[in-house]
Amino acid sequence: MSESIKENAILNEILQWETELQDDSRTDFQRTFDRWFQRKLDEIPSGTKNILFKKIDSSLFHLHSFIQNSFIQQDAKKQILLSARSLNSDIEQLSDLHLLRIDQLHYLADLQTSKHRLYSFLQGGLTGTGGLLLTGLDIPAQTVLNLRAIQMISMCYGYEINNPYEMMISLKVYHASLMPKQLKYKSWLELKREGKKGASSYFYEGKEDVSNEESLEFLLKQIAKLSVISLFKRKLIAGVPLVSILVGAGFNYQVTRDICIFANKYYQYRYLEDTYAVGTGGNDE
């Protein structure tokens, strides 16, 4: 298969995925819940919400910095480069990964995402055992795992994550991937515009706020998951809280899977846009 055919195949996959993002397939119950949730949010004073959003953003920035500077992440970067050199011996640094074909980059990213889906599954299962410490660490651990997954996907497509622009973009990818399904397409279009504005930027010049009201729905789902785990942790099967383990593992796996799919589509798009100046044809307005 020629390189242009592979590019077109990936582009068609992104187009198909974009079309699916536009479909608002919520049930009547989900629409009723969304209206109820919005009314409750409107009851919270704007000052309180702004303080909460700033604290969440600050936590995300610190976690992102901690992950990217960790020895584990540096070793992972070396492993990506080592794997890339097995495909092209001319590769010396991450920016050289653009020498590879997009299907090769997708292969590298898929290796990383499969690992993180497994990590998330295991971490969710541990949370499901119902231990107080593990339950309390679930949301921070999930955030670290998913931020790290996005960083790894970014590096697999040749984007160095330790400059201010790419750091902000990865955080916005994380935020967009957590949006309710009916809002993901809007976030996707915003990310596409960000990529076009800063194609060769080092510093980020856009809006640096990440969290907003829509992101609180995901937090509510996390709390609901922990409540279900707490409810079923005493329901033992052969001495094991099997139901709560399955709830924790299944929920966390699905969240990480959705985040990795979104991040992979975005960085595939960035790669095609930066390397071949193609577009997906979606409405960018």
Automatic annotation (TrEMBL):
Domain of life: Bacteria
PANTHER family linked: PROTEIN ECSC (PTHR41260:SF1)
Protein name (record): ABC transporter substrate-binding protein
Organism: Bacillus weihaiensis
Species lineage: Bacteria, Bacillati, Bacillota, Bacilli, Bacillales
